[in-house]
Design brief:
Structural class: alpha/beta
Number of strands: 14
Number of helices: 13
CATH superfamily of the largest domain: Response regulator
CATH architecture of the largest domain: 3-Layer(aba) Sandwich
Strand content: 15-25%
Order of helices and strands: EEHHEHEHEHEEHEHEHEHEHEHHHEE
CATH class of the largest domain: Alpha Beta
Number of domains: 2
Length: 393
């Protein structure tokens, strides 16, 4: 089911099951806006509505839930400072169901409910599916975690605070070669093809330039399930010395557990996508040793990050992931742009493009004229059930 939620302060209410209303989106929009007015009471100016779209249910909900939580925390921080143009922010969170159709429906509902921008999506395939609909409505989308290079270098209504995944592929390809790996197998989720293909291409090129060879390639659909035994058989038959897995945390954890059950231990290398708390919770000891190429680390000593992490743990009861941190930054830069538009959607795209340097919680950053961002890349591993930097990298 597709639910739309309203986040007020520290509370979250389901307004309606969107699917149950079918085409009655207009009625739902009136309900949402009317409820907001009543909830605002006599607090003054109408709130500025922000829409969040991500997978809030299902097997890959770790990204969406952490993203929504990070966005919620940022909205609360902005409101504690007086809001935007003397108006409070209000977050509407909608479940995109981790599907293209769900992403389009979620964004359509949020825009009709009055959202001035869409914060999302959390995976590249959903962003690519919904972006034309948002653009046709004259809306702006800012994604915390969409990393496909298909959207790089375009002056459009799309912005993001995470870099393209190509840098991670290059870094991991070179790392594999430095580790003495000569033959590697690729495994990738076709349900998020724009992310998977671009990352794997970048890895393959960097690995080949360093003298490495890809000896098998296993593709699967996470919505239909994977046969990890078949992948391990391919790796054994081809002499693969490691597996590069481009998939969500739950799938990578299942692969690691299958290797443990078969008493087979091959190095597992991954992009940022599965680098969430869920891989620790599901994978247990099986996921120790996995290496991720990323632009985010929990071992971040910046005061801004430490304060963010403290507040997140107090608010939600567990540490933030990269999805939470990037979502927090997405709301922060969006609020900065809205302060120049008086909280209105009109002119928001140009205002975002002109925001200039941002302090950030992960690191300082700035959106370029195409709405893209550059950040450093480094390697993280799992050791004794904890994320830690790879020694010497």
């Amino acid at each position: 089911m597709d639910w739309i939620f309203i986040v007020f302060g520290k509370q979250r209410w389901p307004v309606a099951d969107v699917a149950a209303f079918g085409g009655c989106v207009g009625w739902l929009s009136l309900l949402v806006l009317g409820w907001l007015v009543l909830a605002s009471g006599c607090g003054g100016d109408d709130p500025v509505l922000l829409g969040f779209s991500g997978q809030l249910t299902g097997s890959h909900a770790d990204l969406g839930v952490q993203g929504r939580n990070g966005a919620t925390l940022a909205v609360e921080a902005v409101n504690a400072r007086g809001g935007v143009a003397s108006r409070p922010l209000r977050l509407l969170a909608s479940d995109d169901g981790d599907t293209a159709r769900g992403a389009i429906d979620a964004d359509t509902t949020l825009l009709k409910a009055g959202a001035v921008a869409i914060i999302g999506h959390m995976t590249s395939s959903q962003t690519l599916a919904a972006l034309p609909v948002v653009a046709a409505a004259g809306g702006v989308m800012i994604s915390p975690t969409t990393a496909t290079p298909e959207l790089s270098g375009k002056k459009d209504n799309f912005f993001r605070v995470i870099p393209s995944n190509e840098a991670w592929g290059v870094a991991l390809g070179r790392y594999a070669a430095r580790q003495g790996l000569a033959r590697v197998c690729l495994a990738g989720d076709t349900d998020n093809a724009s992310y998977t293909d671009s990352f794997q291409t970048a890895f393959e090129q960097a690995f080949a330039e360093a003298g490495g060879e890809l000896v098998c390639h296993y593709s699967f659909s996470s919505s239909r399930g994977a046969d990890w035994g078949a992948l391990l058989d391919q790796a054994a038959d081809s002499g693969g010395q490691a597996i590069v897995a481009t998939a969500a945390a739950r799938d990578v954890a299942a692969l690691a557990q299958t290797m443990t059950a078969r008493n087979t231990r091959l190095p597992l290398l991954c992009p940022t996508w599965p680098y969430t708390r869920e891989i620790l919770a599901i994978g247990g000891r099986s996921v120790d040793g996995i290496v991720f190429a990323t632009s985010y680390s929990e071992e971040n000593d910046r005061p801004e990050f430490r304060e963010f992490a403290r507040r997140y743990r107090e608010r939600f009861g567990w540490p933030p992931s990269f999805a939470a941190a990037y979502a927090y930054e997405a709301v922060t830069v969006l609020a900065s742009a809205l302060s120049r538009t008086g909280g209105e959607a009109r002119g928001l795209g140009p205002a975002l493009a002109a925001t200039g340097p941002q302090t950030g919680v992960i690191s300082p950053f700035a959106l370029d004229e195409s709405g893209d961002v550059a950040r450093d890349t480094f390697l993280v591993t799992i050791k004794d059930g904890r994320f830690t930097s790879v020694a010497g990298e």
